[in-house]
Prior knowledge:
Two copies of one chain form a homodimer.
Chain A: H1 2-25, H2 32-39, H3 43-46, H4 53-77, H5 83-91, H6 103-114, H7 118-144, H8 154-174, H9 181-193
Helix pairs in contact in A: 1-2, 1-4, 4-5, 4-7, 5-7, 5-9, 6-7, 6-8, 7-8, 8-9
Amino acid sequence: MPKVVDREKRRAEVAEAAWRVVERVGIRAATLRDIAEEMGITKGSLAHYFQSKQQLVAFAFEYGVTRVFERMEAMTRVASPGVDRLRIALELMTPAHFDLDAASAAALTFWAYATDDKLLADVHLRNYATWRTRVSGFLEEAKARGQLRAATDVALETTALMALVDGTLVGSVLEPDQFTKARILEILDHALSRL
Amino acid sequence: MPKVVDREKRRAEVAEAAWRVVERVGIRAATLRDIAEEMGITKGSLAHYFQSKQQLVAFAFEYGVTRVFERMEAMTRVASPGVDRLRIALELMTPAHFDLDAASAAALTFWAYATDDKLLADVHLRNYATWRTRVSGFLEEAKARGQLRAATDVALETTALMALVDGTLVGSVLEPDQFTKARILEILDHALSRL
């Protein structure tokens, strides 16, 4: 048991180091050697945990999104049911709430890698299935409490809101003057006010 | 004059060939050599027009988006003013209307390249400034005709609608089961019905 725990702990440390390197040089330029150096270990030791950059990128993203989901869980637990929880589940996935400046550009690059890499595509699908469950769950909750129109199509609304959030991520990187943090939160408020 | 025309015509042929290669092998794998071969010319002849893959990708995207804008112009000219034109200006930029299957994945990869490449970032900014002018223009037109609430914030609505369209592109590549062409058009209809 302790060995498994240590291994998971070590992999988490690698993911943290990977994100620090990405913050400094970007996801495309980051190498396994950079990440090993960041941790003060050899590339050979790092290979004990990750054999390729692709594997490490997959893990670092899953690790990062899992942290966001944990925060989402903690925040929604103490928020009012329905729309307030829905807002949290969407806001935390927008660049307005990312810890690292490099996270949005890294996410765009991760998406591009995922277009022709099954491992990364599967990580994305798994993360988004989890996110989708939360978003649609809070929409159902809001509907049951009469916070939405009775005719609300939860599946359609879920997909539309997730697309909107992803679009703010694209905009924050490629049209930063249009997609300030304040603007992104306004866009989300506006969408929620129309439910 | 004829020489300039020939050169532009030739560059357009290169862009068309580049898109055919991207459709076959993807944007990441496509090489200048593949594109030269597709045209039946040498890589040296191709270098007369484009010195790097980055330059060619920038041109091929600008070329592709310009074709979409031309179709948008032709379709909106004969459509009813206001919301009907707005719908066209948004729909043509969704994957539901792309000519090539590979275009969505190529666009995601182009965005990723643009995160750390100024030439591509500038092409994107220029294209999106043009698109933004159309979207906001048709929103103003709709507002002036009483098709929208009087209080509509056109700048906010423009940015939100563009983000939504970009999000459907991400979804169509990475969650294709959720973002079918029919679903994307439904999402857009839904957004327009709420204006």
